[in-house]
Amino acid sequence: MSESTACHREDSTRLPPVRCALVTVSDSRTEASDESGALMAHLLESAGHLSVSRALFKNDEQAVRSHVRALADRDDVDAVLLTGGTGLSARDRTVEAVRSLFDKEMPGFGEIFRMLSFQEQVGTAAILSRAVAGTINGRLVVSMPGSKAAVELALTRVLLPELRHLVRELKR
Length: 172
Prior knowledge:
Elements: H1 3-12, E1 19-25, H2 35-46, E2 50-57, H3 61-72, E3 79-83, H4 94-99, E4 104-105, H5 107-122, E5 132-136, E6 139-144, H6 148-159, H7 163-171
Parallel strand pairs: 1-2, 1-3, 3-6
Antiparallel strand pairs: 4-5, 5-6
């Protein structure tokens, strides 16, 4: 790690918690069975961040798009984190819902997530993931697969180490 990167990380630890809105997209999960959404909330809160809202939607592109747009307009939301709907089936439309709203896309998130997923979890099946991240109205928006293992990998290895820094950059 370069000296500059180390300084950014150290500076980021002094920043306020990130206020996150959590969204699960699934045709099969309920609030009671949404283990990936619960894990997302737990990991964020354990890292000192805040879950300001949590919602569950069926694979309905228009409904997800409308909800994410509304969340990105809220003053109490810094980041919107979605789980589910990133695969290749006809019903998986989360990526289309959020990507159409992006002001800027952050391809590095998906690239690094897929690389780690390939190396540590699913091998070549990592190519099935369409995990994406970008910005909408100055808010970070991240869409990751719906499995608990994918949520844990995305948060612990990619997102949480940079979350405060990302939000600081968006507010500059």
